[in-house]
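Help wanted!
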Amino acid sequence: DTQQLQTVEVLEGLKAHNDRAASHNRHHFDTAGVLVINLMSSPGAGKTSLLEATIDALKSNYRIAVIEGDLETENDAARIRAKGVPAVQISTGSACHLDADMVHRAVHELSLADIDILFIENVGNLVCPASFDLGQHLNIALLSTPEGDDKPLKYPVMFRACDLILVTKTDLLAVLDDFSCTAVSEHIRQLANPAPVFTLSSRRNDIAPWLDWLDTQHKKQRTPGFKPMA
Amino acid sequence: DTQQLQTVEVLEGLKAHNDRAASHNRHHFDTAGVLVINLMSSPGAGKTSLLEATIDALKSNYRIAVIEGDLETENDAARIRAKGVPAVQISTGSACHLDADMVHRAVHELSLADIDILFIENVGNLVCPASFDLGQHLNIALLSTPEGDDKPLKYPVMFRACDLILVTKTDLLAVLDDFSCTAVSEHIRQLANPAPVFTLSSRRNDIAPWLDWLDTQHKKQRTPGFKPMA
Ligand SMILES: Nc1nc2c(ncn2[C@@H]2O[C@H](COP(=O)(O)OP(=O)(O)OP(=O)(O)O)[C@@H](O)[C@H]2O)c(=O)[nH]1
Ligand SMILES: Nc1nc2c(ncn2[C@@H]2O[C@H](COP(=O)(O)OP(=O)(O)OP(=O)(O)O)[C@@H](O)[C@H]2O)c(=O)[nH]1
Ligand SMILES: [Mg+2]
Ligand SMILES: [Mg+2]
Ligand SMILES: [Zn+2]
Ligand SMILES: [Zn+2]
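Answered by r_m:
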């Protein structure tokens, strides 16, 4: 009917608008030579904790900045600033994901020329953020061990779309009897996603493979002729 | 501009349509005298595990049925059916929440006359499900201890809207040094929500206050003159 047609049109219009804004953001990032990484996960899977540990490890090698997305509170931005790194908080109100316009406004509060790696911490949500391009170069999905190893199959939109999967909170494996890291990798392959799967514990500061991966990605981004993915 | 206006109109139209469908569902439920409970949480917070433990405990007192919402897989419905209880799986595809139309279709696959309590397990998502009325009588938010006790303040839309908060996976408190159940209650009060906050562990079958609460709600629903909330 007409209402359905109108709905489809409006939603496609919103998507086209977001894609244009994301391209604009990516142009900003590439002009300034900033590597931009979008972190996504369920609420509380450990995004901010991983950023804290990453900043501690890499602050002396890279100039880092963070855009924090949350419905409410400045808590995560405050945690990042306490590490001596610039952070812009986006309050989405009731919106369940960041969009490219929100990120654009935040970008203009940062000095891109002074940043090597910009992390965007998306709203904790294993569904909606996967469908909105922000202009990032790489998408990371975190999966914390207490959530269960079946999450990639049950929330495939996210796990199909990401360039790296980080299994977090491995320190809890000692008390979780039904989580298999091998099963996570198998499920990612079932979704036809060739992305690497790393395990880590921010709590134990056991994050070396992730730091190596970041180094590699940053070197690639700086390679002449590097083409970030669309 | 025109596009924004059109967007607002379309979204309001969708909301009004959903509200009508939810009222229709609620009429079905009230006519049949079925108590309907909507379970919401982050992915993996323990919704299906709690339903399994609840069915084990109450199957001989109540006729229970379950509507399962997931993006993909029949896994949760299969777990419920293995307990000898009817379950209808809704596959939302890429939709991040159940809506009243989806639930209506599922309801017509059940025999409401043969059900005392119908549980709806929503898609794991701490944001979007809170905004879509399904026709349920009561909303439950589960918060698992590994997610952190700050979730009510950071995801207030959900925690403002629910009639009961269940802090799950309390067996893990022994190894989590930064989770306070008291802090959860305080945060719920800060949101001006007077709902009770219970703690439980499905793993340890430590769920007595939740079972008592269900008994009380079911008795209320059966009281002559009972008016379920809008
Ligand atoms: N055991 C353990 N707990 C962790 C680890 N990393 C984070 N946590 C805990 O998990 C909870 C959530 O951590 P955050 O880093 O705030 O998670 P988040 O994904 O940023 O959460 P939101 O932004 O609210 O969605 C906190 O209680 C952390 O202490 C870890 O490696 N091991
Ligand atoms: N330690 C502990 N683990 C639990 C408890 N309840 C559930 N789990 C584990 O948590 C993970 C997710 O449990 P589910 O019951 O499938 O969670 P869910 O909320 O239904 O998950 P989705 O439907 O996928 O969003 C599984 O690995 C369960 O074994 C509990 O009380 N204690
Ligand atoms: Mg965070
Ligand atoms: Mg489930
Ligand atoms: Zn700009
Ligand atoms: Zn009907």
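OP: Thanks! One thing I noticed: The beta strands of chain B are 35-40, 64-70, 87-91, 117-121, 138-144, 164-168, 197-199.
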